[in-house]
Design brief:
There is one protein chain. The protein is built from 16 helices and twelve strands. Helices cover 49% and strands 11% of the residues. The protein has helices at 5-38, 49-56, 61-74, 78-85, 91-97, 106-115, 118-145, 167-191, 200-217, 225-228, 237-241, 259-267, 294-304, 341-349, 385-395, 416-423; strands at 148-153, 159-164, 233-235, 249-251, 270-271, 274-276, 282-285, 289-290, 318-321, 336-339, 353-356, 362-365. A two-stranded antiparallel sheet has the order 1-2. By secondary structure, the protein is mainly alpha-helical. The chain folds into three domains: 5-141 and 384-423, no CATH class; 172-226, no CATH class; 233-365, no CATH class. The protein is flat, with a radius of gyration of 30 Å. The structure holds zinc ion (2 copies). Residues 307, 309, 312, 314, 339-340, 342-343 line the site of one zinc ion.
């Protein structure tokens, strides 16, 4: 039998009211996600809070990233957060508004959300972003045009430097200066440990000299990407086999690193074995060899396809020796597992364990020994979740009905250009 129009109207009201309840519950969900994210609850084995949500809650990766983004944004947008919590502005509207809202523009955008439909909000936010992008492009172009560096001699022969660099070039320079200062500091410590250290200004000047020297020495060649990121580790054979053993584990440049880090870097790497005599002089240098030969690596990728850590699935990985080669573990398919960079770190340096069971399956454990399941345990859900939700909101004094989320729109058509002109602080 077809439903009467009054039945259908009631059904429509029920949909609208339940949607408002879901909106209010979403605000709570985002609060929880924000706290979990800030507390690093996901960091025990996931590259991000969104990846954890995908694994644990079953959100699609894009939706998970959006939940985390919106949750973070609402931390500084209390009025929008409130409107979501009262079920007034739908998650769709809040999602759009948080793309552009700042504490300064929040109030105006809240009014947009209250007045317009979700589609209006989307169009206004798009227009707002275009205006932001224009303003940002103007700013960037202006900065780029203002870049300059003056180098000129003083009356007494000293050379003065004055300039303005764009932010990313400035960051590059600061990084290079810091690296050069570090090198000079080590040289000083080794060669003249008793001398008073130079002032910061003097150190910066010395660092700049080292940068210039180095640049000319390398004929201003920044090098191939592979070389630039190559990391050299010096580690004693005993330390490689046993983290507790005494011995050196240092990066080139002398920075000490934990044995776990060296073991990870050596796990899937090319290596050069050097033998030293008792005084530390190198007496023999072997040929460079890959730990995992190319044919075996192909077979490993063929078998594992992606990182084997539960819930990961990142496609590019390193071959992890389940039993380290330095401890006598063989470089064979059964002793190897593909792990992404993040999870390779988890097993070497963060206490996660991985073993291969007799049946060939991998078994991962948390640092405290608990089993890390491939699939998360199901969440407890009451038998009638919609009623439980309503009852919970009522108990909190939150009264929601079919009109809670109705916009103030009266049916007039939307002129986005006009709206942006009126609303956006940088519109002109
Ligand atoms: Zn490894
Ligand atoms: Zn992984």
């Amino acid at each position: 039998m077809p439903m009467s129009s009054s039945d259908l109207a009631r059904l429509g009201d029920e949909i609208a009211a339940l949607a408002a309840h879901l909106t209010a519950a979403t605000a709570r969900l985002l609060d929880l996600i924000r706290a979990f994210d800030a507390g690093g609850g996901w960091s025990h084995g996931f590259p991000s809070c969104a990846a954890w949500l995908t694994w644990r809650v079953g959100l699609a990766p894009g939706a998970a990233r959006e939940h985390v983004r919106v949750a973070r944004a609402l931390a500084t947008l209390p009025r929008l957060a409130e409107a979501l919590g009262r079920g007034e502005l739908s998650y769709s509207k809040i999602r759009e508004l948080t793309r552009v809202a700042t504490p300064e523009s929040e109030e105006r955008l809240l009014a947009v959300g209250r007045a317009g439909t979700a589609e209006h909000v989307q169009r206004i936010v798009r227009g707002w972003r275009r205006m932001d992008a224009k303003a940002e492009a103007r700013q960037t172009a202006l900065q780029h045009a203002l870049r300059s560096l003056d180098v000129y001699p003083d009356e007494d022969g000293m050379v003065r430097i004055r300039g303005r660099l764009s932010p990313e070039v400035g960051a590059l320079l600061l990084k290079a200066l810091a690296a050069a200062r570090e090198i000079l500091y080590q040289r000083r410590r080794d060669q003249a440990p008793d001398l008073d250290p130079p002032t910061m200004g003097q150190q910066q000047a010395d660092a700049l000299a080292l940068l210039a020297e180095t640049a000319l020495h390398h004929e201003l060649d920044p090098g191939a990407p592979g070389e630039r990121y190559q990391v050299v580790v010096h580690i004693d054979a005993e330390v490689l086999a046993n983290s507790e053993a005494r011995g050196q584990s240092v990066l080139e440049g002398g920075v000490r690193v934990p044995a776990g880090t060296s073991q990870r870097l050596a796990c899937d790497a090319s290596r050069v074995v050097m033998r030293q005599d008792a005084e530390g002089r190198v007496v023999e240098v072997g040929a460079r060899t890959r730990t995992i030969p190319p044919a075996l690596r192909r077979a490993l990728h063929q078998r594992d396809r992606s990182c084997r850590f539960p819930g990961c699935g990142v496609q590019f990985g390193q071959g992890h020796h389940i039993r380290h080669w330095a401890q006598g573990g063989p470089t064979t398919l059964s002793n190897l597992a593909l792990l992404c960079r993040r999870h390779h770190r988890a097993v070497h340096e963060e206490g996660y364990a991985v073993d291969r069971q007799p049946d060939g399956e991998l078994c991962f454990r948390y640092p405290d020994g608990r089993l890390l399941p491939e699939v998360p345990p199901p969440a407890a859900v009451p038998g009638d979740p919609a009623n439980a939700l309503r009852a919970g909101h009522e108990a909190d004094g939150l009264i929601l009905d079919a009109h809670t989320a109705t916009p103030g729109w009266l049916g007039e058509s939307l002129d986005v250009g006009y709206a942006i002109d009126v609303l956006h602080p940088l519109a002109r």
